[in-house]
Amino acid sequence: MPRPSTFALSLLGLLVCGLLGVLAESLLSTARHQARLDANRELVARLGLTDLALFTEARYTRHPSQADLHSALQDHPGAFDHFPSGSLLAPPAHLTRLHDETHEPVAGKTTSPD
Amino acid sequence: MSPWLEKQRHLIDFTLASLARRKTRNLGLLVVYTLLVFVLASLTLYSNALRSEAKYVLAGSPEVILQRMVAGRHDLIPPGYLEKIGRIRGVQKKEGRLWGYYYDPVLKANYTFMARPASEVADGSIMVGEALARERGLARNNTISFRSYSGKLFSFEVAAVLSPDSELLSADLVLLSEGDFRRFFEYPDGHYTDIALSVANPQEVRNVAAKLTATLPDSRPILREEVQRTYQSVFDWREGILLTVLAGAILAFAILAWEKASGLSAEEKREIGILKAIGWETGDVIRMKIWEGLLISLTAFLGGFLAAYVHVFHFGAAVFTPVLKGWSVLYPKFALVPAVDGLQVATLFFFTVFPYTAAILVPIWRAAITDPDAVMR
Amino acid sequence: MIELSNIRKAFNQGRSNEYWALHGIDLSIEAGKVTAFRGPSGSGKTTLLTIVGCLSRPTSGRVRFKGEDISALPERFLTDIRRQSFGFVFQQFNLIKGLSALENVILPAFPSGRPRAELVARADELFARLQLAHRAQAKVEWLSGGEQQRVAIARALINDPEVIIADEPTANLDTALSMEFMAILEGFTAAGKTVLLTSHDPLVVESSAVHRVVGMRDGRLIGD
Prior knowledge:
The structure holds 3 protein chains of 3 kinds.
Chain A: H1 4-47, H2 93-96
Chain B: H1 3-20, H2 23-57, E1 64-70, E2 73-75, H3 81-85, E3 91-97, E4 99-104, E5 109-116, E6 125-128, H4 130-136, E7 143-147, E8 153-161, H5 167-170, E9 173-177, H6 178-185, E10 194-199, H7 205-215, E11 219-223, H8 224-262, H9 266-277, H10 282-313, H11 321-325, H12 342-368
Parallel strand pairs in B: 5-9, 6-8
Antiparallel strand pairs in B: 1-2, 1-10, 1-11, 3-10, 4-5, 6-9, 7-8
Helix pairs in contact in B: 1-10, 2-8, 2-10, 2-12, 8-12, 10-12
Chain C: E1 2-11, E2 19-29, E3 34-38, H1 45-52, E4 60-65, E5 68-69, H2 75-85, E6 86-89, H3 101-106, H4 116-129, H5 145-157, E7 163-167, H6 175-190, E8 194-198, H7 202-205, E9 212-217, E10 220-221
Parallel strand pairs in C: 3-8, 3-9, 6-7, 7-8
Antiparallel strand pairs in C: 1-2, 1-4, 4-5, 9-10
């Protein structure tokens, strides 16, 4: 019968190898990603961007010059979150409904298939 | 093999054989432990990668942005302001920028419209971010119409879709010519949204800002470091929220682990007595238990960390996306640079492996120093 | 081989429930012989065995083992002596549940760091001698009382000690099994081992396998 320690130590050894592999991969891929990072930095400089486009659902979460300074944090500090997307539930439908219901959203017309 | 090594293997054999007696219980603990490390490691890896990416990329942002304020609110820069600034020592370039938000009722999403010089974008055409193009089903040479805030319809031809590599920055961007921008938003001629200034010498930035406030008292200079500090706190805040939510889980695990590790049953106490009576030293008993703690916590740590790495950098943090995304419509697709911060790994290691092993040791210490003749009484 | 001089042992010393288990024992034990301690429960015979077997230290008095005073040695050395020179067979057998008979038997040798193959070979040899080879892989809680005791005996022998200490070895055995135990005991003497045991079982103390019976009462010897 194989010794349990053989199994446990091999498993640990395997995991350590995995960790080393992951560290090696992260070092190698930093070099691979460098071109993309430099291109993005150039884009930032050219367009004068100041933030990541992570949360675009509210204007104050995406603002090329922080339209209102600290608006990102201007809610009460005790508030649970400042991003609308922070809540997993969408706001009630009546809040997002267009006010002018008679108006067909022509803006949505594109020549490409939607 | 040296006797020392052989002895350690014996101790490992014994501790594993003991653990195997309550297989489901101990495997369950290992799984929960691994899961906890996985979530914590995913969180730190993800936010760290995002942070370092933002830090690197946003180093190219303008050093100073000048906004005009009216009654505490951001207002347009009126004509003549650029000239009024004049020549300030250290300022390499100053340019009036035009940008604004557009709410698209089709996607129920905000786009960021930005005017670009005619050399980049011709009148009547636009360049759009990849996420926007994906959501609206746009490709090069397609035409798209936007109803402006004044109710008029404008049609644009998509001249290009911005590189998917830049999605993290450009997901919601619509680049259009200055003429189109002014017509679309009915922006008065000569007005700008704000002014961006580049300052070569970082030491000069604060002086430049002071001079700007003196020259244009109704304006507010925003420094790049301030913007980045705000974003840093936004990230920290968000990470903190997740940690707060996780705190409950962490505490629950701490209780579970403490109960498991420190609640030495009468049975275990008796076994330690037997081991001592048949010739184990106090040190051997403690070493055996250290191995137990190390084996469980190292396996959980390494397994959890590896899974987290694969999850964050190869599966795009699939578990977190719903939380981060919320109901954000234009969510960029992005791959992060797999950056592993040694200090962070060490911190995580310290806070997961060490407490568990310590929790095992404290009660064992007390039990192991009992007299070996206890089993005969 | 073992000399005890004026051994006194107190439990809970200095507290209100202070209790003296031994009141000055002087005794010399010969090598290669079976010595039985006989006496009612509470007479101090088990306490005496724990002192001889280095499981505990006397409150006062000296224990000499092969001419060396061991009563004042620090725990580490005492443990070494206990592991190398003494093998224990406990009244309740004190096997570790959930482990196989084999694992239980090789357990006392773990701190020595001897290779596992060597230990398993030695255990197999002991199992063969005790007619237990077919039960080596069975978990100890599945074994019968007699089998459990033989596992306990094998465990006491794994480090090849010079002295076997058995506390009430037949208390949990029926007559047939007790006879079997006495036969094993004779095997020990033949192999040159010294055996110390406590018992108030006439089957044991009157057996021909026992060379010397020491009577005890209230922590004192009452003559051979």
